[in-house]
Design goal:
alpha/beta, OB fold (Dihydrolipoamide Acetyltransferase, E2P), Rossmann fold, seven-stranded parallel sheet, disordered C terminus, binds adenosine-5'-diphosphate, binds magnesium ion
Length: 671
């Protein structure tokens, strides 16, 4: 079954054989297949070692060029042999040629295949021919017929699906492996063919059913129940509310109620707190933490980067330490002794609030009494890692409540699939006094102009960020350009203090620079993307991003969210270097036109696919192999309804279906 579900990614049409003359004309932009007799086979050494083979039929001759080749190929294509070749034709110096065509030894009457030739997703070390052979064997295996046999009554399918004219599963899979010569290749490639639809629907159905199961399982689990009452008198939550320098926005108050309601349930919360950059998620998380601490439990806050975790730590320390809360700080960069101390505090229950990075979910950590885990920027963690925290609770009977936070809205299709068992609270309102950010897109050649604008900006007593380009290939190069910009800007802006922060600094050095920036001892902060998340300096309302074309949607959106927090009008300047790819051009344009996180997330998803949003890349939990959430959105709804119907009326079909799909998936994950 697993092998049968290893479906082709595309097809080659080897059912048609052209004469060499026809191939030369038709093979310009798509590949063509032709055959002939080898009349010449030369190994040339200029400009580099290569093999040029010439074949001939009654109509024409054609050169085949191989830039690397094996002795076995020289033998296969020796003068006088008959070969069938397939490839694109181009005009070379010595006439028409194919570069690296696929070659098959034939006799002049070797029959053509009757079906399109499948090309399978590459598997390391296994050739296409070997996969094809194995798949063919698997398709003929009687046990496959049995395991793919139709068990959905036709009547039921036509009730579940608007116009049911899909093949059954066995037919669909056979068709996808061996489509007939006249198949609609476009629909096969785009995966919109009825045969694909059948497979996609079944896959989605399995996913919907298992999501509904997961939901039921979670509701059957035990978690500590927290009374909705705010503890009177010297409670932590009351204390926090009293010292907050602002009033919660209506949206914050609403989501806080939603979370409070979940915490009062006897099963674990699984809630996402979604709110655009700067919407004030931290204080909501702090209130939730205070609430469980007031009732004798620990709360943990985990963030994906040290700098973000630190930001939380500093903020929470400011809020909670005066209220007598014991806080533990745990990250990978701590010294062994400090780590051990933190772990002891966590394990003994002495620490009420625990803040840190991935270090929180390491083997050696044991929480004494964890009531709530807050996971910031949840999409940066894999599904696995989010589950890990549960393992650290130390009790298999009790689950902790989980609150995920993200600035990235979950598109509807994801909410209906991977995130179906996640309740979502949205902060859809920014704190009062926020100014919209004006975004400008500027060519790098206008750098001087930008710097002189920066000068007048700083002269007004305001501060600014200068973000250096992301260089994915090399951290050293990234650092180098940051240092160069830092030196140039220091020179160009006499009278102002310029600071530099980057990933190579130790965390106390980073903290010192950030503190100086916050205190306005530094006016311009040159930074690498380490400031991407969480940094909060209201007086800094201008941000220049160098080489903005190298950043993704989400990154710029996050970065830009650092400004627009104070009373000054905020500006973000996206500098770009030419040439600009179409994708980068569109990205910058969208970012200039909108700062709506939802629009940006949708664009982003259409570009990158859901893997990154999910963190599924690292988790191996991407259950949908054949479904594209965007292309097949309409199918999701159908599958959801079908899952409800089956769970209600056809339990036995549900079991068989899960067995069929998840059984094979389990096998697949092991591979
Ligand atoms: P994010 O949702 O991006 O994590 P933060 O929680 O860091 O946002 O909040 C951004 C800023 O807004 C912080 O300086 C925070 O103190 C401030 N803030 C949060 N809630 C309010 C509010 N209700 N009124 C005014 N300022 C607020
Ligand atoms: Mg935040």
């Amino acid at each position: 079954m697993a092998l049968a579900l290893h479906l082709p990614s595309r097809y080659e049409d080897e059912t048609e054989l052209l004469s060499i003359e026809e191939a030369i004309h038709q093979g310009r932009f798509s590949s063509a297949q032709t055959q002939g007799v080898v009349i010449r086979n030369q190994v040339l050494f200029r400009p580099r070692r290569q093999m040029v083979v010439t074949i001939e039929d009654e109509t024409e001759t054609l050169n085949l060029r191989f830039l690397n080749f094996y002795p076995s190929q020289q033998k296969q294509m020796a003068v006088g042999s008959h070969i069938r070749v397939r490839g694109e034709v181009r005009e070379g110096f010595q006439g028409s040629e194919m570069v690296h065509p696929t070659v098959k030894a034939v006799s002049s009457d070797t029959p053509l295949p009757a079906s399109l030739t499948p090309v399978y997703p590459a598997t390391a070390g296994v050739s296409q021919a070997a996969i094809r052979k194995a798949v063919n064997l698997a398709l003929r295996d009687p046990s496959l017929q049995e395991s793919l046999a139709e068990f959905f009554p036709h009547q039921l399918m036509s009730e579940l699906l608007p116009s049911y004219d899909w093949p059954n599963l066995m037919e669909a899979i056979t068709y996808l492996h061996q489509p007939p010569a006249d198949a609609n290749t476009q629909a096969l490639l785009e995966r919109t063919h009825p045969a694909w639809r059948r497979v996609q629907f079944e896959e989605l159905l399995a996913q919907q059913i298992s999501l509904k199961r997961a939901h039921a399982i979670r509701r059957g689990r035990q978690a500590p129940t927290f009374s909705k009452e705010i503890k009177k008198g010297l409670g932590i939550e009351a204390g926090l509310l009293a010292v907050l320098p602002f009033k919660l926005t209506a949206a914050q108050a609403r989501v806080w109620l939603e979370i409070g309601h979940d915490l009062a349930q006897a099963f674990p919360m699984n809630r996402l707190l979604q709110g655009d950059v700067g919407s004030g998620k931290t204080v909501v998380a702090a209130l939730a933490a205070a609430h469980v601490m007031d009732q004798g439990y620990q709360a943990a806050v985990m963030a994906p980067t040290e700098i973000l975790a630190e930001q939380h730590y500093l903020k929470m320390k400011e809020w909670f330490e005066p209220l007598g809360v014991k806080i533990a700080w745990l990250t990978g960069s701590l010294k062994a002794k400090e780590k051990r101390l933190a772990q002891e505090m966590i394990e003994s229950g002495q620490a009420q609030l625990i803040i840190g990075t991935h270090a929180l979910i390491q083997e050696s950590v044991r929480f004494a009494k964890l009531g709530l885990a807050v996971i910031d920027e949840q999409h940066r963690f894999g599904v696995r890692q989010r589950l890990e925290i549960q393992q650290r609770v130390g009790s298999e009977l009790f689950y902790c409540h989980q609150l995920m936070m993200s600035a990235t809205p979950i598109p509807r299709t994801l909410a209906m699939t991977y995130y179906a068992d996640l309740d979502v609270s949205v902060i859809d309102e920014l704190p009062p006094g926020r100014k919209p950010i004006t975004t400008k897109v500027v060519k790098a050649s206008r750098r001087e102009e930008v710097i002189s604008g920066l000068h007048s900006w700083l002269a007004k007593g305001l501060q600014a960020y200068w973000v250096c380009p992301l260089i994915e290939e090399s951290e050293v190069l990234q650092l180098q350009t940051a240092v160069e910009s830092f030196e140039q800007l220091t020179q160009a802006l006499p009278g102002f203090k310029v600071g530099l922060v980057h990933g190579r600094l130790k965390s106390d050095e980073k903290a010192a620079v950030m503190a100086a920036f916050k205190a306005n001892e530094i006016q311009l902060l040159v930074a690498t993307t380490v400031i991407e998340v969480g940094v909060d300096v209201p007086n800094a309302a201008l941000m220049v991003i160098e080489h903005a074309e190298r950043f993704g949607y989400a990154q710029i959106h996050q970065l830009r969210g650092r400004v627009g927090r104070g009373s000054a009008d905020s500006v973000c300047i996206l500098m770009y270097a030419e040439p600009l790819s179409m994708a980068a051009k569109e990205r910058l344009q969208t970012l200039r036109e909108t700062s709506d996180g939802f629009v940006i997330a949708e664009r982003d998803l259409s570009l990158r696919g859901p893997g990154e949003l999910l963190g599924a890349k690292q988790s191996g939990d991407a259950m949908l192999r054949f479904v594209d959430l965007q292309r097949d959105a309409w199918l999701i709804e159908l599958a959801q309804k079908a899952a409800d119907r089956l769970l209600a009326d056809h339990r036995e079909l549900v079991e068989r279906h899960l067995e069929r799909w998840l059984g094979s998936r389990a096998e697949f994950l092991k591979a």
